[in-house]
Amino acid sequence: MAKQFPPKISSILMTPDPHYIPGYGGYCPQYKYSVGQSYGKLTSKLLTDPGIARSGRLILQPTHLPAPSIDEGTNHQLRSCKVSWADQKLNDVMIPGYTGFIPNMEHYFSKTYTKTCKDAIRQFEREQLKIATKKRELELITSLQSGNRKARTEQEKKLLTVRCSMPLRPTGTSIPPYNSPYSYKALGSPYLMANENPHKHFISGYRGFVPRAQFLFGAGYPIITNKALIEFSRVLNRSKTSPVPVGNSLKEGEGLPRIKSACPLTGMCCPTIQSMHQKPSFNLGTARKTISATH
């Protein structure tokens, strides 16, 4: 049985086959009666112990992985483009866990990380080669039309028949600038917009203060802020049109109250407060005179 499974790198560091990996939920004979070892070592001992009754056929089967296919053309392209990519750390074998940017990687999925990166980098390299080819073709057309180089092949002779001459020259001197009707325009502050403007509101998530919005509820944030800003604009316009009182508001002959009676200070007497808290005095002689007069 042991011959079916090839030996690993080290029998000391690695658990010998056959064994179950931690997390396996299947049945293992005599597992619940054995303790004192890790899951891998314990299952390896139970599966190879001849004194334990078990099935003669293991669930685990030896696997022979096919040799990875090597695309020499792709690897050659990736090795040739390392110089032009400068500091970009893109190669033919990307290690899982790399957090850098991989161009075109969002278009590939359902594969391992290494294969996904290889396909994405391959497409990126093809796009770069197309761009470089077109750039060299434009340089060749310029040199042929200027006479710096003579046409040698049929393809170069066809390039001479190009209608446009390189480099392209401007056809006019005073060309009016094009202003797109759909270009971005700053809307400005909602406080300065007209009340009929549909954009007179704050977007959801705005954390600033909106006047009079605390009294409104039961609707979405844009609707609430729109109503609050409209009400605030009305109050502000009303305050601008109403006259502001100017001058002395006191009537003729009316002055400020006396400080002594209005604001009692330390060490000063307040007649009003003193009269409120003064206890009445009792005179016995005055009381007798009053009683005798009544009788």
TrEMBL record:
<keyword id="KW-0206">Cytoskeleton</keyword>
<protein>
    <recommendedName>
        <fullName>Ciliary microtubule inner protein 2B</fullName>
    </recommendedName>
</protein>
<keyword id="KW-0966">Cell projection</keyword>
<feature type="domain" description="Ciliary microtubule inner protein 2A-C-like">
    <location>
        <begin position="17"/>
        <end position="50"/>
    </location>
</feature>
<comment type="similarity">
    <text>Belongs to the CIMIP2 family.</text>
</comment>
<dbReference type="GO" id="GO:0015630">
    <property type="term" value="C:microtubule cytoskeleton"/>
</dbReference>
<keyword id="KW-0963">Cytoplasm</keyword>
<comment type="function">
    <text>Microtubule inner protein (MIP) part of the dynein-decorated doublet microtubules (DMTs) in cilia axoneme, which is required for motile cilia beating.</text>
</comment>
<dbReference type="Pfam" id="PF10629">
    <property type="entry name" value="CMI2B-like"/>
</dbReference>
<dbReference type="GO" id="GO:0005930">
    <property type="term" value="C:axoneme"/>
</dbReference>
<dbReference type="InterPro" id="IPR018902">
    <property type="entry name" value="CMI2A-C-like_dom"/>
</dbReference>
